[in-house]
């Protein structure tokens, strides 16, 4: 290339011309980096929006010709230039270089300023109505539930640094998709958008209403705009409401429709779209974006008779230093000349670890392979929900984790059969031990047989009949359990800590004819409940050395019979495939011992027992993630059933209990501060004492809220539901937790010591001596702590 004329920098304020030199590749990298990232080289406020930087190799040339190693840099401010502008600029540059003047047609007389004036004069009413309809009921302020590694920080704490992962589709994948797109008359752009929506649907565990920011890099929607150099970009929402049962082709048609329709109104500025929702302060859909960039990759550019080789800007750039305002984006680049399709995933390092982004890119490529296979094998009718994000190495790990089959030590599969088998092997070994009491296997079998025969001969139980038992921890508990099983009945435990009202309701629900008790629990039941005292039954047979066990051999049970029932709750939802490692999903449990279902509640059973590949699974409702070591990490509950101090609690049951009080019109119970249940009630005619007394008479201790907050009106969201985020935070002071208007102080030395220990463990200043331990966050582990402290303080070990 030859220098035509000199340049006087002082005569121009719109652009600048710079000459410099380099001798090493590192120096050239530094110059290129400065041109790309130094914001002071251009000044939009002063109109300095273009610069030409000529970098000579080793020294400034005194001749008018450039050498092969010289570098020519054209640097444009982004507000002036978009990608298609480059082709027009090079065309005009070549024309000016070869002819010394530019040729104009009618369209080239239009300037970028004319376009701005035309846009301001356009009628926008049709576009405004379209976008209002397209985004109706769309939750624009709710971010997509991507697998973030960190919570979003406030703006002042964000670095805005991103990491980028790039990869090619490959010729085989691209060939498959191109054939499918052309045979169905679908643009490749729409096909890539459809793939991205499928991927996000799987990545976000089945979210079906997806709204992204679509970056339009060549928004020259009118012919007269196609020859104007300038920035013709816009960002528009692209909303896809998909059906998980759609096949790939159905989703593709839907994406083609929404994309085509949205492009008709792509001239509507993003600012106008946002103004239609003034109540939204943060438009979260802008945090996830997608774009498609077709381009012609010319290896050479001809300027006159000179051949210029465009330089690559991948100059040892640290990808984690790039800046972006988007949390997560996918850019697809299509080389029209080479027929190559590549993708680039950008993700914010404020929210993601680079390892997470690398895995996401692997999962995206895995989805591509599955879709390609479905196209090639003509399986495009396969529902998209059947696609999987679980990578091959993760599938192997899942298979290893679920390979839990074990061989039993005996040919027997029923509990009491296995028990008898152990008695025959170790008759004199210790079977049960509690404090100073113990039983050998042989002794335990004798007592179990005595109780079983009593149930069969005197109470005429039949196999499958439910028998309740309400006993404290004791030898009688074990005898009762095995006695019920040996009689062929179904064991149902009742907690002695439950109030009479609840115990009666549970017995009625099981339709049990009687309850096994012992000396500590026989007073829990009124005369209308038949209570069979285990201790009395055994004492009445103490003189019998030989018992007739023939009747027991006639009791027929098999491994599929129900062994026990317990009172708990299930969860709801739609079964899905294995979740990927690190992805939050619901835990399913299968294999030997899956429970038979809910008693007389086929509707609940159908919700929680799911058949997958011919095997029965119980859906726990627990949300967990799995790491690379196979460890499960508990994330929370899918419903409002929670675990508190090892106890599973259905919050809805507490709420129903409170709502049975006539003066309460609304109620919500929440777990707060990890240790406390807090009940918010809507009432104008109640008090905390009444609420607590009602709960104590209807609920077990671990389900009684620590704090009751009475409000005249519970806050509601726009949908008319209780807005839990607006509920006032509870006061966990000692006065509120002890729930006493008057604190009763300790009197003697022992009470003072116990009071001090309690205050230290519960981190409270004062605790009334009549406080119930469970109302201030006590649980089994705290009781063990107290016991340990008591042994030290009161020298109990001696």
Characterise this structure.
- This protein has 798 residues and is α/β, with parallel strands linked by helices.
- The protein has six domains: 9-109, Chloramphenicol Acetyltransferase (2-Layer Sandwich); 158-287 and 319-389, Nonribosomal peptide synthetase, condensation domain (Chloramphenicol Acetyltransferase), CATH 3.30.559; 415-553, Rossmann fold (3-Layer(aba) Sandwich), CATH 3.40.50.980; 585-637, Luciferase, Domain 3 (Luciferase, domain 3, Roll); 641-732, GMP Synthetase, Chain A, domain 3, CATH 3.30.300; 749-793.
- Helices cover 32% and strands 20% of the residues.
- A six-stranded mixed β-sheet has the order 4-11-10-7-5-6, covered by helices on one side.
- The protein starts with 14 loop residues before the first strand and ends in a 5-residue tail after the last helix.
- Residues 313-317 and 569-576 have low confidence and may be disordered.
Number of helix segments?
Answer: 22
pLDDT < 50 stretches: 313-317, 569-576
Largest sheet: 6 strands, mixed
**Structure class:** alpha/beta
CATH architectural group of the largest domain: 2-Layer Sandwich
The rounded Rg comes to: 37 Å
CATH H-level name of the largest domain... which superfamily?
Nonribosomal peptide synthetase, condensation domain
Strand neighbour order, sheet with most strands: 4-11-10-7-5-6
Number of domains: 6
Brief synopsis:
This protein is an alpha/beta fold and 798 residues long.
